[in-house]
Design goal:
This protein has about 325 residues and is mostly helical. Helices cover about 70% and strands about 5% of the residues. β1 (about 275-280) and β2 (about 285-295) form a beta hairpin.
């Protein structure tokens, strides 16, 4: 597999999970995702510059073509840069190659980062500081948060953590195991494109079309693996319902506008016995989202703790699987 054997890739992926558990996702200036984001903004500015000041803007098909250029250039450059970096490090010293690959894989996952972001909201919620909780909720969701109460802030955080179990954990690990650090970064570039230009608003509906669709393709298999993992985690954790989690995926996942995000959100909603989805407000405009799960009880900040436990439970199960593979090899 690329520069390393499958056993080495499994070992480096397991080590990357440990690095993320301990260090997390620091916002260093050298973090690869920061460079990817800068590249996306630079290419976007160049591609859109031609139409600035024109009386007639680019057509939808022209914007889609430019969006394809952005998406292809970003994922290929990310892949090739990491491949070159790993190859260079390995050429200098074998252990340096292992260290660089492990670190790069760890930058594509965000287990600790998700936990920290969720607890930034739950901590002030526990003390009744709604103003502080609203501020931190606004950091992780795009909806208006000024008027949200505890139940709605809880929903926002639980939805975000559940969805990102795919984007920030299982998908990058899935691609790391297939192709090491280069393919993991290929995925992270795809996901960063979607988060930056994959919106269905007037500005990005056409220009971000390719990025959004490609992210859907990349997450298709990992999202379904995540659903299975969440059911298994619900089976292991007291107070959660694996049966209800599985049933919720079958009943509600297809209602979500995303072909992938509905799976983890439905799984979590079913396991916790709460309802996710509902009315969101974006820039003062109300938007009704599909309701997932059953409102068997009211949501509370306790659900943030529970979904974080599910997040870590999934990472523990994956780590256990990787260690079993390594032990069987040894």
């Amino acid at each position: 597999m690329w520069l390393y054997s499958w056993q080495e890739i499994v070992a480096m992926t397991a080590a990357a999970i440990c690095v993320d558990w301990i260090i997390g996702d620091p916002k260093w200036p050298t973090h690869p995702v920061i460079f990817i984001g800068r590249w996306i903004r630079w290419v976007e500015s160049k591609l859109r510059k031609e139409s600035e000041g024109r009386a007639v803007s680019d057509s939808g098909s022209q914007l889609k073509a430019k969006g394809v250029v952005l998406a292809v250039s970003t994922v290929l450059l990310s892949f090739l840069m990491v491949l070159a970096l790993v190859w260079t490090a390995r050429s200098i010293n074998e252990w340096l190659g292992y260290i660089v690959s492990t670190w790069l894989i760890s930058t594509t996952i965000a287990i600790k980062g998700l936990k920290d972001a969720a607890f930034l909201v739950s901590t002030p919620l526990r003390s009744g500081n709604l103003v502080e909780a609203r501020k931190y909720t606004g950091y992780i969701v795009g909806r208006d948060t000024e008027q949200l109460g505890e139940e709605e802030m809880t929903r926002a955080v639980v939805e975000t953590v559940a969805e990102n179990i795919v984007d920030a954990v299982i998908s990058p690990l899935f691609y790391a195991l297939i192709g090491g650090a280069p393919l993991a970064m290929f995925y992270r570039a795809s996901n960063t494109l979607d988060s930056m230009v994959g919106y269905r608003n007037d500005k990005y509906r056409h220009f971000g079309w390719a990025s959004a669709r490609w992210d859907d393709v990349m997450n298709w298999i990992p999202a379904r693996l995540t659903g299975l993992l969440l059911i298994f985690v619900a089976l292991l954790q007291p107070g959660l319902s694996a049966k209800r989690s599985a049933t919720a995926i079958r009943c509600f996942a297809h209602l979500h506008p995303s072909p992938n995000s509905g799976i983890p959100e439905s799984a979590v909603a079913g396991a916790l016995g709460i309802e996710l989805g509902g009315l969101n407000v974006y820039g003062g405009v109300a938007s009704e989202r599909a309701r997932l799960g059953w409102p068997l009880r009211e949501r509370s900040q306790r659900d943030i703790v529970l979904v974080v436990r599910m997040l870590y439970g999934v990472s523990f199960v994956v780590m256990g699987g990787l260690l079993c593979v390594l032990l069987a090899w040894l």
